[in-house]
Give the backbone structure.
Amino acid sequence: MSSADDERRGRRAGGSGAGRVAAGRVTALVTSVMDLHVRIALQEVDHEKRRLISGGLLLGGGLTFLMMATVLGQLALVLWLHMGLGWGWIKAVLAVVAGDLVLAGLFLRIGGQLMKGPYLPQTTAGLSKTTRALLGR
């Protein structure tokens, strides 16, 4: 057999060896980059997990005290509206409930806006840089 026959058989069997080596290198590079990003993300998650657990416990305690103070404040407001201003019980309670609904809507709207955004900035930045480098932009 001649080298021309070997070359034809190589093309039919899957292309040239150089193409397969280049594809293997690109695959290895992409795998390596993705492994790096996964490691960074796991580090960020570990750090964020500790912070979120501590913050959640403190927020839970704070919200418990805030709820107790709010209930007592609303009770005092209803009593003041009834006894101090001479309003009926139903009118006083409905006024407090209307105020609560307005405040709840305002808080939910502002809180929803604050919750938007990226949670893992290092990972997002790294993936953006890698994508730009691989695409040549």
User: Anything to note?
Assistant: Residues 17-84 form the longest helix (68 residues). The mean pLDDT is 81. The two ends are 47 Å apart (CA to CA). Residues 16 and 84 are 93 Å apart (CA to CA).
